[in-house]
Request: fold
Amino acid sequence: MKIEPTVNESNRQATIKIAGELDVHQSKMLKAAAFDVFRDGPWTYIFDMAQVTYLDSSGLGMLVFLQKEIVKRGGELQIINLKDTVYKVFELTKLTNFFKLSVAATPGHAP
Amino acid sequence: MNTPRDIETLLQQQLQHGMRMQIRIPGNPRYLAFVRRLVGTLSAAVNLTGHPLDDLKLAITEACTNVIKHAYKYDARKTLALLVNASEHGIVMTLRYEDPGFEPDKIPQPDLSQLREGGLGVFIIRHVMDDVAYFCGSPSGTVELRMIKFLPCTPAERPT
Reply:
């Protein structure tokens, strides 16, 4: 798994590009990377999951945990560029109702 | 010692002689990606790809994760046995592990109207597989979880 965080202090925006498979083994790495960029206040965090090829309930659980942490600090989480197979797991568990999801309208991605 | 890549190559050779795989893995989450690859290799041998294959990978990972987290509590000295049978009718994945006292009837249904961090594994397995059954109650505490995915049949194979 590969994680690339970028922080823009002036815009109060942090983007984390995630690549690989987000299961129970890998999700701890995401937690560590996210906490490295978390700040208190109205920050926007963008998780770019264009290169995430697998997500399960453990990965979802970590995303729920991180979203709660972000909201507690006064920020907002956006998850973008989900592939079909990954978006399907959000849909299956009805978590589409709780996340701000933005999906690319290109082949291989959710509508 | 064989590396996971060696084992995958051996498996591919074995698959030419029969669509059956049995492995034993340590109760360590680092092996989950390896298990997904093995299931993918076996499924490809019976032309099961795309979303049905995604479902298989999701189900086997959820099942193994539950065992590692809840039954074994991350004790990597304990092992899980995975048996996969693939045929033109479908894939049967059987996971065998130790969990004395496990009662599948007591697995709670998740409340999907609430934001939750866990408790979704069995719900997902039941949703993506065509048939899911737990067999337990043996004196040794062995639990067997059987998950079946049927392959779509062609019109000629469909019963009349």
